[in-house]
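Summary for the steering committee. The consortium agreed at its last meeting that each partner would contribute one worked example illustrating the joint modelling workflow. Our contribution is presented below. We chose a case with several input lines so that the handling of multiple components could be demonstrated. No manual editing was applied between input and output; the record is shown as generated.
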Amino acid sequence: MTVHQLSIFIENRSGTLIKVLEALKAANIQIIASTIADTAEYGIYRLICSEPMRACEELKKANVAVALSDVFALAIDDKPGRAADAVKTFSEAGISIAYMYSFLLRGKGILIFRTDDNEKAVKVIADNQLQSINEADLSELA
Amino acid sequence: MDTNSNRQEHLTPRPTREGQGGGSAFFNPEFETLSRTEIEALQLERLKETVAHCYTNDFYRKKFDEAGITPDDIKTLADVRKLPFTTKQDLRETYPFGMACVPIRDCVRLHSSSGTTGNPTVILHTKKDLDEWANQVARNLWMVGLRPDDVFQNSSGYGMFTGGLGFQYGAEKLGMLTVPAAAGNSLRQIKFIKDFGTTAIHAIPSYVTRLYEVMQQEGVDPRRDTKLKVLAIGAEPHSEEQRKRIEEMMGVKAYNSFGMSEMCGPGVGFECPEQNGMHFWEDYYIVEIVNPETLEPVPDGEIGELVLTTLCREAMPLLRYRTRDLTRVLGRTCPCGRNHVRIDRMRGRSDDMIVLRGVNIFPIQIEKILMKFPEVGTNYLITLITEDNNDQMIVEVEVNEATDDFAKLQALEKEIRHQLGDEILLKPIVKLVAKGSLPVSEGKAVRVVDKRKVFE
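What follows is the complete predicted structure of the assembly.
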């Protein structure tokens, strides 16, 4: 129901992002989706990629501060209003979404997000028959 | 000068007050105006007494034994070089009272510095030590023209920081109305200056600059609206240029002060109106400048490490104390009539101690705190900057463990800042940086970058 996401500490300084990307390139890791959240001084670079465990190891070897976290991935129809419908189910269940980003994959909209209550989120997904995807699905879609 | 009379007599100051003593330029004329020969004769006599006094203490006796000397080996002033050096490490290892040369019940005051890697250091004072300390400060303030009619505002930190009580007692001994304003609260400081008719202020140089800024904001012109005539500045490295800027701002002379808690505090050295080096009081100290590597004396004019031997301390005399401050001898005579050695402003340190806003900080203190946080690495960089005339410390540290949670990063930054603040008594700016982004030099890491506007 969840997928692995890499969270990388980066500074707001030129050269820090390329170091991460070069390390992934050298390890032949494919980036499926990524986003940077930043403050004035530093940011967190979050990414979904092929072989997240190996990617994490490779980045650590390249002296990059990286953490693995579990995030939800929902597949929704590529139609207006579907994201609103999905998020509404969580908000009605009293679940907060810490952050969210999305991308298109083979005609499906993929929502990646973290919640403040994963257990409850799992139940909401099941009860509402939302289409969550796992890592195998992602690789297949990619 | 009768160098054979007893010590107590030597040390009793005879202040010559204006109106009473004919307006002498000297607070202790009998000591301040000694010739070089007389100074050296007095030093030898006091050195012998001090060494004999130290020999009653187990720590010193052991050191003497190891060096293969006894007090009888001190026959000339040059024999001071036979004595073993004393270091801050010795003070730590004998913490708290191992270097006391009198029973603790005879001590009336204790000053302590913060601990670094281990124990803090403790300096004990007897009643007489405090009086001698006050006398040195009073002598300094008298030297730059302050008299009992003056109003002295001490805008320096109090508590364990010796700049507070040191100047307080000294200014009172001189007979001035003394305002223990302490540091901070600039608006109140300015109100005191105006309401009390303050004529002299002691503060660290960066605080004087801060006061001036607030005066400007408040529309107060120090030349027009205050009675200020003298500033005493010290406890923080500053350049000649910075001093001139302060004098220009405030419209008064600013005199450089040297002190260190190991010797007592402020009072050890002070500039005379010539402003050509600080007179170090040689009736109180033997001043040596040595090469910090070879520990051999360097010729006058050459930079080396300042080494001080106390000559009048009862509770905790210190023999050949390595101050780690780098400076040089400028001369041994002066048009002001004092032949006490003139020492240049401090040029840096022979160790890695940082002096920031009057507070002494060792990088190891920072390191010790950072090591408590597994989220950050052991590689860090301290940068000292001057921002809006305020000296600041930036501590950059590499993030070791990433997180998906911004709140955790912010909390980490805050907690590091808080714990560093508790340790070094100043709150630095903490910056989290990416792993591997800080410079690592071969061997000893470069940990401190000083970008303060201090040295020309």
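Chain A has two domains: 2-68, 71-141. The interface with chain B takes residues 5, 7-11, 13, 16, 19, 37, 39, 41-42, 44, 46, 63-67, 69, 98, 114 of chain A (CB under 8 Å).
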